[in-house]
Design goal:
The protein has 113 residues and is an alpha/beta fold. The chain has four helices and seven strands; from the N terminus they run βαβαβββαββα.
Length: 113
């Protein structure tokens, strides 16, 4: 079973995302709501891939994305804005909110997890 790290500041979306991941056969290794906790968990938790909300209480999740890249961990941005944050790789996958179970499954398979 693959472990997924979730970074989402909206508690309801985080809970829904966690349920969807479990329905797809994944385990949530950590779920955090803010930038500081996300950076700490990215450094200290074991996981296979991550799902990052683009905006965390008004702060960009780009520092987390850069850390994940340095650690060699795949990730996908989840956003209601329609695109990845400025400064991120143009080839970085984006999961557009609201998304369906099939969208999430496709994004995870695209990361080969």
């Amino acid at each position: 079973m693959k472990d997924i790290f979730v970074v989402e500041d909206d508690a309801l979306i985080a809970m829904l995302l966690e349920e969807m991941l479990e329905d797809l056969g994944y385990r949530v290794s950590a779920s955090v709501p803010d930038l500081e906790q996300a950076l700490d968990a990215a450094r200290n938790k074991e996981f296979d891939a991550a799902i990052l909300d683009v905006s965390l209480a008004g702060k960009s999740s780009l520092p987390v994305a850069k850390l994940l890249e340095a650690l060699g961990k795949p990730y996908v941005f989840a956003t209601g804005y329609g695109s990845a944050p400025e400064g991120s790789s143009s080839s970085q996958p984006v999961l557009r909110k609201p998304f369906q179970l099939s969208d999430l499954e496709k994004a995870l398979k695209g990361m080969q997890v």
